[in-house]
Amino acid sequence: MKAIEHTRRDTLKCLAAGSVGTLFAFSAGVFIPIDLARAASPDDADAGRAVFSFVQISDSHIGFKGEANPGVPATVAQSIDLVNALPIRPSLVIHTGDITHLSKPDEFDFANQLFSGLRVAELHTVPGEHDVIDGPGKEYFARFGKPSDGRGYYSFDSGGVHFVALINVMNFKASGLGALGNDQLTWLENDLQQHSSSTPIVVFAHMPLWSVYDAWGWGTGDADQAMSLLRRFGSVTVLNGHIHQIVRKVEGNVTFHTARSMAYPQPRGGDGPGPGPLKVAPELLPKLLGITSVRFVAGTGSVSLDDNSLA
Amino acid sequence: MRRAGGQRQTLGPIANFPLANMRNSVTYRRISVALTCVFLATCPVMGESAGRNTITIRNFTFSPNSLTISAGAAVTWKNLDGEPHTVGSDQGLFRSEALDEGDSYTFKFDKAGAYRFICSIHPTMSGTIVVK
Questions:
Q1: Are the Cβ atoms of A101 and B100 closer than 8 angstroms?
Q2: Do B84 and A276 count as a contact with CB atoms less than 8 A apart?
Q3: Chain A residues bordering chain B (beta-carbon distance below 8 Å)
Q4: In the 3-class helix/strand/coil scheme, how is chain A assigned residue by residue?
Q5: ipTM here
Q6: How many Cα neighbours within 13 Å face the side chain of A272?
Q7: C-alpha distance from A98 to closest chain B C-alpha (Å)
């Protein structure tokens, strides 16, 4: 969080470099970088308006021991420290999947042990394909299945924001893209019908709900059907993991944003033979791992996303 | 690998000598043999690809992706990717657990037929075993 003391000029440099403390604000679909110093003191900047914030963590891959990061537990612990050190205490944390690397019971148990260090009241999860690698996802649902009654999709409300958790890592199609399926889409339609268009919506899933790089399966085949249900809302934020790097897109009132991993980076789409773990120089690794914090300012309809790397 | 152990013991002092003086020494030859042994032992790719009925997984690809075997023979898949994969029959006949880097899975085919298999989490990866 060193960048929070920077000036606006520094912030813009920071944005250009895409490094520590990159911060973007989206208001009515317009993309504006905002002054990080201002963001760090919301009392002044937002003149008494209530601020609601939460954090997205992703792709902890507990159990990964490859050369791209032989010390995954340490970088996950550092990510948790980063959450705990945020200047505004987040109301909740979402984990957008690939909690574990191989869906093993001891990996889930170790992950839970690490996450218990989060000084945040609520942790909400969706599974990645690595968490349900056995097919039915026995170990994942035994631990994290309760909010969704074992289905993987569910919703909840917090701070005036409606959160929708979707699962797109079961029943892959031959294309390799993620899939939501008709049951989930019908549930989503019913769920959203209960909310007015002025309710800020946060949708989170593991795989991108937009086409990032289809040849590597970085998308969800039936995501368009979900997005058509979301377009009437004034503020929609769609968060995912899976690709271990920051990619963002704004489309009307919808902001799409992918988070960094806490474990290892991956190449950019199409860069090399496949989307495997990317080995980088040791000093570069902490710059490519991190968390995303999201902040809503009540009454303004604006949401800001702040990507913090470990170094 | 006793020779490899010998190499470790002698390499320290020998490394200080000019190479020209070593050319005909017994120690130099021992090191050469030891290094060759180490190279062969740490080069599983060569060994595996030469193995019978083995399919390697590398760069999100099964290689070879088509294999013809006799009934009663077994096929071994070995994952060499940093990313885990699975191997499963698309008709549900067999399915491996997650194969981490270096892990293998073997299935014995008893009946003639064509068996298509995929990686369940990367289903663009596919191949076929033909059993005669």
A1: yes
A2: no
A3: 66-68, 101-103, 129-130, 133-135, 169, 172-176, 217, 273-277
A4: CHHHHCCHHHHHHHHHHCCCCEEEEEECCEEECCCHHHHHCHHHHCCCCCEEEEEEECCCCECCCCCCCCCHHHHHHHHHHHHHCCCCCCCEEEECCCCECCCCHHHHHHHHHHHCCCCCCEEEECCCHHHHCCCCCHHHHHHHCHHHCCCCCEEEEECCEEEEECCCCCCCCCCCCECCCHHHHHHHHHHHHCCCCCCCEEEECCCCCCCCEHHHCECECCHHHHHHHHCCCCCEEEEECCCCCCEEEEECCEEEEECCCCCCCCCCCCCCCCCCCCCCCCCCHHHCCEEEEEEEECCCCEEEEEEEECC
A5: 0.82
A6: 12
A7: 12
Count Cα atoms within 13 angstroms, Cβ side, for B24. 0
Nearest to A172 among B82, B83, B123 (CB): B123
CB atoms within 10 A of CB B8: 9
Whole-number CA gyration radius for chain B: 21
Candidates B82, B121, B123; nearest CB to A133: B121
CB contact under 8 A, B59 and A133: no
**Contact across the interface for B82 and A67, Cβ inside 8 Å:** yes
The residue with tokens 């208001």 is: A27
Nearest C-alpha of chain B: how many angstroms from A223?
Answer: 18
**H or E segment at B125?**
strand B122-131
- Residuewise pLDDT in 10s, chain A (311 residues): 333 333 333 333 333 333 344 454 544 333 334 333 334 444 444 556 778 999 999 999 999 999 999 999 999 999 999 999 999 999 999 999 999 999 999 999 999 999 999 999 999 999 999 999 999 999 999 999 999 999 999 999 999 999 999 999 998 888 999 999 999 999 999 999 999 999 999 999 999 999 999 999 999 999 999 999 999 999 999 999 999 999 999 999 999 999 999 999 999 999 999 999 999 999 999 999 999 999 998 777 689 999 999 99
Angle at A111 between CA A57 and CA A275, to 5 degrees: 60
Model confidence, pTM:
0.80
A182 contact partners, CB below 8 Å, separation of at least 6: none
Whether A273 and B97 lie within 8 Å, measured CB to CB: no
Distance from CA of B112 to the nearest CA of A (A): 25
Q: How far apart are the first and last CA of chain A?
A: 9
